Amino acid sequence: MAALDRVLELNFKSEAIKNCEDEEQLLSDGYDWALPRAFQEERHVDKVEGRENTPQCWRMKERMKTVSVALVMCLNVGVDPPGVVKMQPCARLECWVDPLSMSAQKALESIGANLQKQYERWQPRARYKQSLDPTVDEVKKLCTSLRRNAKDERVLFHYNGHGVPQPTTNGEIWVFNRNYTQYIPLSCNIKIYDLQTWMGSPSIYVYDCSNAGLIVKSFHQFAEQHQKEYDEMLAKSPALSNCPPPNFTGCIQLAACGETQSLPMNPDLPADLFTACLTTPIKTALRWFVLQNKDKLLPNITQEMVEKIPGQLNDRRTMLGELNWIFTAITDTIAWNILPRHLFQRLFRQDLLVASLFRNFLLAERIMRTYDCSPVSSPKLPPTYKHPMWNAWDLALDLCLAQLPQIIEDMKEHPTSPVPPGNGNGGNGNTATSSVADVANGSPHTPSPFFEEQLTAFQVWLTFGNDPERAPPEQLPIVLQVLLSQVHRVRALELLGRFLDLGWLTVNLALSVGIFPYVLKLLQSSAKELRPLLVFIWAKILAVDHTCQSDLVRDGSHKYFIAMIGDTTLPFEHRTMAIFVLANIVRNFRSGQQAVLQANAIAVCLEALDESDAELRRWVCICLGLTWAEFPSARWCGVRDSAHEKIYNILEDPNPEVRAAAVFALGTFINSSNERSEHSNSIDHSIAMTIISKLGTEEASPLVRMEITVALHNFVLAFENNFITIEQQQIAAQELKMASPAGGNSMRRISSHAKMRLLANANPLATVTGAETHNMNHDSMRRVASSSSLSSLLIAFSPLSAAGSVGGIYGKVWATITTYEKDPYHGVALLARTVLQNIRIKAKEAMKINGGNKLSLSLANSSISSTGSGGPSVSISSVASTPIKSNTGTVTSGSGARRTPSPDPTGSGDITKSTSSFQPLIGTKYIEWCWDRFARPSAPGSVVLGTPLTCCPSTTYVDPHDPIQHTRDWRYVRNSGIRRECFRRPKAFPGKIDEQMFSSRSLHSSHGSSPSSAASSPSFNFSLHSAPSLVRLHDYEKLVVASEGSVFSLYDLTDTSRLICKSDNSSDSRITAIDWINAHDESLIIIGTDDGSVRVWKPDLESGKPRLITAWNALSDLGLINKSSKSYGLHLKWDLEGEKVLASGDTKIVRTWDIKTELRKGDYPTGFDCPVTSIDMHRCEPQLAVLGMEEGAVRLIDFRLPPAECGVVTWREFGDGWIVGATLRYDRTVVAGNANGRVRFFDLRSKSPTKTCETGTDITALAIHPHLPYFAGGCLNHSVNVYGFMGQSAFQANAIRDSLFITGRMGAVTSLHFHPYKSILATADSCSVNVYKTRGLLTL
């Protein structure tokens, strides 16, 4: 009665109420939406490896600066040059100076001074030299001196030839003689050749004269001549190869007009219009705009009023400064959208002066083309004068000039506070008041809406997402300019963050346009509202291009992000991204590690380990692991803060990715020690043992197991000699086993005394732990009196148990890695095998060196010594003392080159042995995969710069327009219809199941009558080694999966000639359990084998090649139990709603695995000393499971109770036969049957069966329908009997004996399975897989 009382304590609801609730829930359309989808995390869907996102070359290899400027003015004021006819009136202004308003010499000096000031606006730190009406010698002296002082920097040569003849067709430019009596061409015979020689490279040339295009043409000709002469010189004298080659082709040239064009002479424009555009663009643009639009503007706008525009060019708050700001943004935008990326980088980002000149050159092209002049440049630029952005510039000027009359009128009304006008010379005008001052004086300046409108246009572009077919947004350079404004900065940063969030391509675009210096400078801001925006932007940048880490360290910006990590008032997402940025700073960058260590980042990160956010914990572990990776100073700082002990708690984290990060951090902690002190050894031993004890048998995630293998591999390399000794002992044990009497008479005989001596010498290692050494006295050993005792010792040292029998730290680590060598997940097994093979090779080489093939001799001569409580320092007299040739080809004592001993940074403990530095043998792509997640676009609809952020994977936004979503919606509607049909069945018995609808025999025969012809078919791989053993119908799809030994096959029920896929699950194990996962959605197949392994496969219905999603060892101690002579293998039951897997079989427990956390949830004893033959559960009671036992009993266990009390009731009404099947049905009844054909029905609240059925024949397989009144048994006479039950009676409905497709009886029945919602039965026998249905059932 105790068991029955336990059942009554479960407080079941009434059966009628619960059945009604179940039906209503199953029939609802939202039931499938509420179900979880297992194994759908990114680590399951994608490969855990990073992408090779090669960043573009946005960073200039070398920054250049124009340090010297030569201003050569050949004006000869008052004298017109020959060949030039000037119509009156004509253009006279030179650098905005009227040369006829003063004396010739004064005018020349004023023009030269003004030109220098205009250039100083763009490059104030350059060295300027004027040469006014110079001679040839003066030009030569000027150029050579500037080049000498500039060294490898750029020199600018500005030539104004308005007072000399036009350049000749040979490209000659003109200067004067000393007495100004004649014009002398430079290099009369050599032409521009001499000028190139004097100026050298790199240089930039500005030609403001008529026919200036001739100079550009001749320049290229002479550059080729220089190169040709250099090549000829090298051919004659190879010793001169050290001389640098000429590089005149890389020089930059700007010419005012083409080869046959003359400069415009409009009297309303300056004579040096080209120079005015290059040096005073705003003033020139305003003057030209007024001239072009005089009839369209307000009639009172004049040139004199334009001169009175208030403000200063370098003050963006004033009208003039705002116009200059807009002009810079527009010209940058035009250049970025038209020029190739490499040319844009060279001309607009390498040199500030060059960038300014080329921005202004775009204006010069637009203005001078209206006067039939086409400016020329080298390198040549595509036409830009018709770009649509010029319309935006005209609008900005129009809006500005519309305010000008009122502003001038207000200035007149306030004579006490005059607003001085600005000029276009940049920095030469008087100080202007800002718009704030204008408002105070009654002359308000309305800011231009240009930037706000451009941000809106950029936002519109972002709303359409990241379509690869679309061109990049043309407003991107403008967005960067807006970052300079405090008014629009927050909005600009938010839009920029959304742009960067579109992927690594957009990050490269932003970097190429010049985002980097802007966002780097903003890190100096203390504004709190910018922190989430900046950390998001920097996370996106560093996820694509980690080379920016050096810039952050150089500017001390890492402290900005460390402060964010420690600020607990910030959201978890912001702190997570700050840690990600910090991890980038320390990743493979020693300067970053040192800077972060000095900033006390380790202590700050350790404080964040206790936070509740999984992403934050994961990145804290990764950051810590990268901080002390191969950096001993950081390791000892972590030791002082007990970092490794704090990370121990994270090993039990429910998130597998967090656990993997924690193992990674502990693994690099081991790898970062360059010495072997007692303190260091004890820490490493503690880490290894903690990892094994917490995760060794608890871990289902292959991601974590791979990191465990890498971490333990670091431990193996650090204590390599110890593991070489373990391997030598295993070799010796194998040799002893081969030499034992059980090995046969052909084995060489070894005396008992020799065997005992060998075991005695091997035993010291067996008891070595991290804190003790066991020394064994050979003479004190008791004598072995019998061969049986000796055999028991030999068995203890068998190769399979040698590592485990060693005991202590090294034996447990070795045993763990050996276990992982046979891991069901290939990635884990490959890593472990690599480590073991490395040690095995070195062990064999060492033993051969010391004793040839006498392996036991080398082991017997080995000895172990210990340094004390800190852990043993191995000294192997005949093995480790002998140099071992490493796999790199060098001879070392261990692996790799030895490190230089260093003192203990903690100041405690003595260095007993300096370890050899080692190169890791294995590694994973987990860190690269984590990095790649930040480089990807966020989920559609997520709030990029709000909460939650894109880095948080918990965003559950559903795109209603996603085709996958439409497919899922259709699938769920179909599922609910199938369930609704099942529960709205008629009360009468559904009918016989005897109509065959599928047979795999027809599939086999369609490919030929012989196995060879079937095997040759591309769509079918005939299996000869095994017959079908298990079969499972899909809940909703028209699919059936069957197993054949170690192979599983997936069949299409609608096409009898189609085998979807056939794959070998494991070549060395037998499939004993198979089921569907996520049957309501994209389904997976879970398979259990008799070695205790579980594998989850994703079938590909198109290619027919399933992909392994995950695998783990569900029951490592699976094996024969006591007197049981039959192996039942592994039995599995998948619980979808609870996201757990129940595993049992040839064991005395039921183990539950939590699939969401991928951890072992608990072990529940079966209460029997026999195997479990079947296991089942139902969603009606998710906390209960029904077990069928080999002893003929059925046991009900409750997972809500403690393991010792979980068995609530046991039914033993079956006799001696083992339980073939036991099922918990939807109505909370248990139906079970044994091998003798006895089928019993039980109520959960009753101890006695409520219904019985004697089939009268022994059965080999049993299936009970979970919802319809059916059960079926496979008989020994190669037939299947289908039974029905209504009320208190059970009856045989029909028998299935033949195949309708192929004449002949079916084989021995091995498995049966009912469709959960249809009257359909699948059978597997020794010949085929067949599916039957009731007559009249048309479709699935």
Mean of pLDDT: 80
Give the biggest beta sheet: 6 strands, mixed
Order the strands across the largest sheet as they lie in space. Answer: 2-1-3-6-7-8
Helix percent reads 25-40%
Shape: elongated
Would you tell me the structural class of the helices and strands? alpha+beta
Ranges with pLDDT <50 over ≥5 residues?
Answer: 1-17, 416-421, 423-443, 743-806, 852-916, 947-956, 1005-1025
Q: Got a strand count?
A: 40
CA-based gyration radius = 43 Å
Q: Note the gap between the termini.
A: 46 Å
Strand residue content: 15-25%
Number of helices: 44
Write up this protein:
A 6-stranded mixed sheet has the order 2-1-3-6-7-8, sandwiched between helices. Strands 13-40-39-38 form a 4-stranded antiparallel sheet. Strands 14-15-16-17 form a 4-stranded antiparallel sheet, with no helix packed on it. The longest helix has 26 residues, at about 825-850. Helices cover about 40% and strands about 15% of the residues. Mean pLDDT is about 80; it is low at about 1-15, about 415-420, about 425-445, about 745-805, about 850-915, about 945-955 and about 1005-1025. It has about 1350 residues and is of the alpha+beta class.
